[in-house]
Amino acid sequence: MNAAETKPDELPSFRLDGRLAVITGASDGIGRAFALTYARSGAEVVLVSRTKEKLQGVKTEVEAAGGRAHVATADVSKLGDIHAVELEVSRLLKSGSKDRALVLVNCAGFGFTKPALETSEEDWDRLVGTHLKGTFFCCQSLGRLMIERGYGKIINLSSTWSASTDMGKSVYGAAKAGVSYLTAALSTEWAPLGVRVNAIAPTSTLTENTARSFRENEARAQHLLSKIKLGRFAEPSDLVGAAIFLASPASDFVTGHTLYVDGGWHASL
Q1: For residue 102, what are the β-bridge partners?
Q2: 3-state secondary structure of 107
Q3: Of residues 38, 172, 181, 260, which has the active-site annotation?
Q4: Is 1 part of any domain?
Q5: Does residue 2 sit within a domain?
Q6: pTM
Q7: N or C of the chain: less Cβ packing under 10 Å?
């Protein structure tokens, strides 16, 4: 399926009607915010996370707002789990319109701040396995379905730390830099096949876990806040505009890009 070109006198569409959006890390935080916003914008959503109970709660929220949602419990660091998600998504695609577009949003992840000399192999494997390995193999698995249909959108979650350094961010920053590189590399391979691959790179975002860590370490919070030109931390709602844009027909000529949504932090790097 090739997206129709927008005529000069037509407004681009930011609606997601007829799109099936698979969102990893959808049980809370940024992934939950994306899922709810996508559903309100017309997409049918597949909620992916390790925590079935939380996913069911998000599914209830989506349906209460008039949307359609499916739950797929999976650990994205495990290829068997990713394959199971692919099978379910393939089934949903076959049950709908042939023109249905597939969107993948890789939000699964967690914050990590630890000095390099104190970082264990277990820390490395857990973080890289989720943020980088999980992102790659979700892209590979669902990318196949997009390529079969000749069209698709992938949105990866990078970070300001992909291009910035600070104490305790060696492993997290390396993983997120890998996500940004992977985004560009996959866009190069898959652009001729109709698949757009982009990333969103937020600054510190006030999810429940992040807010808790800032309460426990106020000095750290103030240090990070000093880097953000707009003078406040991001909320998950600050990121949904970029997520809507990159999933919608309005961004059909955008690929290989990491969009920094960081209150101006990146401008001074």
Answers
A1: 20
A2: coil
A3: 172
A4: no
A5: no
A6: 0.94
A7: C
Instruction: With beta carbons less than 8 A apart as the criterion, state whether 24 and 75 touch.
Output: no
Spatial separation of the C-alpha atoms in residues 87 and 72, rounded to whole Å: 11
Pick from 221, 109, 119: nearest CA to 170 = 119
For the segment 52-61, what is each residue's pLDDT rounded down to a tens digit? 999 999 999 9
pLDDT tens digits, residue range 92-127? Answer: 999 977 789 999 999 999 999 999 999 999 999 999
Per-residue pLDDT, averaged over 222-233, amounts to: 95
Q: Which of 259, 235, 148, 232 minimizes the C-alpha distance to 195?
A: 148
Residue 208 lies in a domain: yes
Determine the structural domain holding residue 239 and report its residue range: 19-268
Q: Is 172 a catalytic residue?
A: yes
- In residues, how long is the chain? 269
User: What is the domain-level CATH number for residue 119?
Assistant: 3.40.50.720
Query: Is the CB of residue 153 less than 8 Å from the CB of residue 247?
Result: yes
Alpha-carbon gap, residue 49 to 232, rounded angstroms = 29
Mutual orientation of helices 218-225 and 208-216 as an angle, nearest 10°?
A: 110
Question: Which one-letter amino acid corresponds to residue 251?
Answer: S
pLDDT of residue 5: 56
Q: What's the number of domains the chain is made of?
A: 1
Sheet holding 68-73, edge to edge: 68-73, 44-49, 19-24, 101-106, 152-157, 195-202, 258-261
- Taking the C-alpha atoms of residue 148 and residue 107, their distance in angstroms, rounded to an integer, is 24
The answer to whether residue 182 is domain-embedded is yes
Report which of 171, 176, 147, 157 is spatially closest to residue 239, judged by C-alpha positions. 157
